[in-house]
Design goal:
- This protein is an all-alpha fold and 186 residues long.
- The chain has six helices and two strands; from the N terminus they run αααβααβα.
- A two-stranded antiparallel ribbon has the order 1-2.
- α3 (47-70) packs across α4 (88-98).
- The longest helix has 45 residues, at 141-185.
Amino acid sequence: MNISNFILFQLAWFITIFSATYGMPYIGMLFTLLWMMGHLSFISPNREKEIKLLIFSALVGYILESILVLSNIVSYPTQAQFGFLAPVWMVTLWINLAATINFSLSWLKNSYIITSLMAAIAGPLAYSAGAKIGAIIIDDINALIVISIMWSIAMPLLFYFSNNLSNGKHIQSQLLTNRTEETECH
């Protein structure tokens, strides 16, 4: 499952970036939608938790990407603009990434420091690759530093949210068990 998760993540990233570059961002968005439908169909026991994670990731991604646009840290070529402030296809990349948290990136779940360090490197590399392909415009090294800082905070936040979704259910079931035991004792 982890290998196919990673391959589909990479495939969705490339299709989304290239389709945005060539003025057809809906192709990458459609592919990601289909991939998410398949992804969710294979994880039925945790589907609700995964949907919450994908939605949270989309919201965080839209806010952070919009801040980058409003701050003139990044911009998008005319053919890649598709949405208000942050392009919708960028938000689908965040959703795509979130689908790896409990699978191909699950080995990072308990190490926020390593997650932060890896994100500080991988984030700017992904944006640089997108810029070389022509989907995004990054003007200078300072933009990459800001992106690095943003990702070093955002990625552990996504993992923290995912971990708390799991812990929240555990805590709720533990409270219910404790209440049941108290009721039986009285």
